[in-house]
Amino acid sequence: MFLAQTPDGRRITATRDEDGFCPSCQEVLTAKLGDVYVWHWAHKPGRSCDYRRSATFWQYSWMSFYHACGSWDIEIRVDGYDFDGINREKKLALKLATKLDWLEEFVGQLRRLG
Predict the structure, then answer these.
(1) What are the sequence ranges of the domains in the chain?
(2) How does pLDDT run across 96-108, given as a tens digit for each residue?
(3) Which positions ≥6 away from 5 have C-beta within 8 Å?
(4) Minimal CA–CA distance to 1: which of 103, 27, 17?
(5) Where is the Competence protein CoiA-like N-terminal domain (predicted)?
(6) Which of 27, 53, 62, 111 has a CA positioned 20 to 30 A from the CA of residue 37?
């Protein structure tokens, strides 16, 4: 996930300076701070929940971009719907595509038909 939650409810990007907790299951998270991928949070090995399970490097890159813009709330739920970002001031919502497994299956079905 791109943003973890602190004990006081703030949402933070991956860092060594603070502990991050999963907004869904409240488990302690591990900050992934490598040189290749976008910094993000992950559940500890052997632990997981369904929160943001389908996020990809591409999605994290876009969330990082919008988060840096300053006026976007990232990884947010509104009225039961999950959004990758919302700009309340401009009344815009961002829902990035999920993993493309379904697309490969769809293309395969089209090939079988045609």
Answers:
(1) 4-113
(2) 876 556 666 777 7
(3) 11, 12, 20, 21, 22, 23
(4) 27
(5) 13-51
(6) 27
| Alpha carbons 79 and 101: distance in angstroms, whole number | 27
- What does the block give as tokens for 16? 């060594």
Answer for the pair 75, 11: CB distance below 8 angstroms, yes or no.
yes
Whole-prediction pTM:
0.71
The answer to whether the beta carbons of residues 27 and 47 sit under 8 Å apart is: yes
Q: Cα–Cα distance between 50 and 96 in angstroms, integer? A: 17
CB environment 67-84: b (16+ within 10 A), e (fewer): beeeebbbbbeeeeeebb
Q: Give the phi and the psi of residue 15 in degrees, each rounded to 5.
A: -155, 160
Contact 25, 49 (CB under 8 A): yes
